[in-house]
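Support case: user asked for a sample of complex input and structure output to validate their parser. Sending the pair below.
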Amino acid sequence: MAKGYSQTYDIDYDETFAPIAKMSTVRTLISLVVNKDWKLHQLDVKNAFLHEELMEEVYVAIPPVFGTIQTVGKVCRLRKSLYGLKQSPRAWFDKLRRAMVGMGYQ
Amino acid sequence: MFFQQHKDHTTLLVVYVDDIIITGNNEGEIAQLKVQLGKEFEVKDIGLLRYFLGIEVARGAEGVVLSQRKYVLDLLTETGILGCRYVASPIDQKIKLTELAGEKVDRERYQRLVGRLIYLTHARPDISFAVSVVSRYMHDPRKDHMDAVYYSMRYLKGALGKGLIFRKHGHFNIEGYCDSDWASCVDDRKSISGYWMFVGGNLVSWKSKKQSVVAR
């Protein structure tokens, strides 16, 4: 879990908005499904926030358990998204959107 | 929400953070979509939808039922209400709540409990009015307000699994209903409005809210 609260807008992250379904949308979908005799399937995405390459340069302190003499005064650069980062939900949704558009969805 | 339509196949996908719901009229397309998503992400195919954001989804002969029974049970167990006598209505009609009603109570606890009741309104329009009433006092909760919260929880005890039923009505009509009371708020004489929206004969959206101006 990264310390997202220490990130500064426009420096460490730009866009954080990630669209999520409203419950009224889900209920409308269920009404449609029942009226059409369709089935509802569910997929659970594991570690949804850990998949995406980061657009911005983000550095984190070296977690204490990995600290040695050699790591003193050094930090880690993040390559992929991490839970707790402000841009994580957005990065996940972007990746899903690209995958869906690639499959011909809109 | 994403959708695809080709030939006579329709496939829909709705995402809520890391939960994905897929539906459509062609099971082959759905299976293919699941496989494709599995290549891009680490996904677990749960099969048919049963549990979504703490809401139970059950399919029966009559249709689909959404309920939050487990969430209610957890709430009542944590607050020690489970052994209490239940009441028949979500709010005590004899009591008109006002600001400054009694001693101050623990604000954080009050906000947490009301927050959980708000979450319960995802599948329970029956407590919408009661929840909107107690939400008004979040900033300065008093004893009478907390009593009202407990009253609502005692109502839940007698109606654990109440929820929404979605039936097949064979149409996709949109119908709306609304009503308002007559300046019922004792503090500022504002009225409370409520609305219900039905799509395809099933309730999908509703609200109980105090009006923003005093009606004349």
